[in-house]
């Protein structure tokens, strides 16, 4: 399995958006569509799905997935975490799109964690920059304590995708949909345990060197 560093993952994202010019929302839509394919392959019980969305672009992916699930007739709720004033532009736009399609957004109400059959973890991706604490810690604990199957988006939240170690606490996922390439920490023993079944999804972000050589494989 090819793995890349987190700094390369960020650099390849930047290259695709700034140098190639593919808009961020296009990449996000591809990420969400691939995640839906992964969900279909997992054949989990989708009778009640919760998407836990942070304020960064990982949360934007989660909101796009919620919208696509809703359009497939799945009963899906979104739980927003983090300060909405700090949300990225894409995450704010994705919230608007999801609401236009009638996705139910739970804002601050107590969550009945045991009522969900599947939880989509879209709290932190490669933007995790410090130890997880406070409310985030409690939410990740609740995800881990629930009986739901958990799909982590890009990275199990709280996992340092570079070292493969948890940063205080991390989502113990049944499966992870990671984008472009697996990150180095996902190959370690602890990283593998947190990720569960790993899907590496092509969403149109490549190592610039491979593009310049005329292929992406
Ligand atoms: N266009 C893009 O940039 C794409 C981004 N993608 C997704 O976006 C993710 C990266 O998005 P971002 O760079 O916005 O980062 P994240 O969404 O991973 O998280 C960043 C946010 O979390 C906060 N944060 C970090 N550590 C924290 C902690 N311990 N406690 C509380 N808050 C903390 C940061 O201040 C920031 O607000 C990827 O992992 C991937 O899921 C994908 O949609 C593909 C395209
Ligand atoms: K995540």
TrEMBL record:
EC number of the protein: 5.1.99.6
Pfam families found in the cross-reference section: YjeF_N
Binding site for (6S)-NADPHX: 57-61, 125-131, 136, 154
Cofactor note (record): Binds 1 potassium ion per subunit.
Residue sites binding K(+) per the record: 58, 121, 157
Domain YjeF N-terminal: 9-211
KW Electron transport (keyword) present: no
Keywords: Isomerase, Metal-binding, NAD, NADP, Nucleotide-binding, Potassium
Reaction(s) catalysed (UniProt annotation): (6R)-NADHX = (6S)-NADHX; (6R)-NADPHX = (6S)-NADPHX
PROSITE patterns per the UniProt record, alphabetical: YJEF_N
Highest rank taxon of the organism: Bacteria
Required cofactor names: K(+)
Gene Ontology molecular function terms on file: NAD(P)HX epimerase activity
UniProt similarity note: Belongs to the NnrE/AIBP family.
Function: Catalyzes the epimerization of the S- and R-forms of NAD(P)HX, a damaged form of NAD(P)H that is a result of enzymatic or heat-dependent hydration. This is a prerequisite for the S-specific NAD(P)H-hydrate dehydratase to allow the repair of both epimers of NAD(P)HX.
Entry-linked HAMAP family: NADHX_epimerase (MF_01966)
Protein name: NAD(P)H-hydrate epimerase
Organism: Nicoliella lavandulae
Biological classification of the source: Bacteria, Bacillati, Bacillota, Bacilli, Lactobacillales
């Amino acid at each position: 399995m090819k793995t890349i560093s987190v700094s390369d993952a960020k650099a390849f994202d930047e290259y695709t958006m700034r140098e190639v010019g593919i808009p961020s929302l296009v990449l996000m839509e591809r990420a969400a569509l691939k995640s839906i394919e992964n969900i279909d392959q997992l054949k989990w019980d989708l009778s009640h799905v919760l998407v836990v969305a942070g304020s960064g672009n990982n949360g934007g992916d989660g909101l796009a997935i919620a919208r696509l699930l809703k359009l497939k007739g799945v009963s899906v709720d979104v739980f927003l975490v983090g300060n909405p004033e700090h949300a990225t532009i894409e995450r704010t736009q994705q919230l608007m799109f999801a609401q236009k399609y009638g996705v139910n957004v739970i804002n601050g109400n107590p969550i009945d964690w045991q009522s969900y059959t599947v939880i989509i973890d879209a709290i932190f991706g490669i933007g995790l920059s410090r130890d997880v604490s406070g409310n985030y810690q409690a939410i990740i604990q609740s995800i881990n304590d629930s009986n739901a199957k958990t799909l982590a988006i890009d990275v199990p939240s709280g996992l340092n995708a570079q070292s493969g170690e948890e940063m205080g606490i991390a989502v113990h996922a049944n499966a992870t949909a990671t984008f472009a390439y697996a990150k180095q920490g996902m190959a370690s023993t602890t990283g593998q345990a947190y990720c569960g079944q790993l899907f590496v999804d092509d969403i149109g972000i490549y190592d610039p060197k491979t593009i310049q050589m005329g292929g992406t494989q």
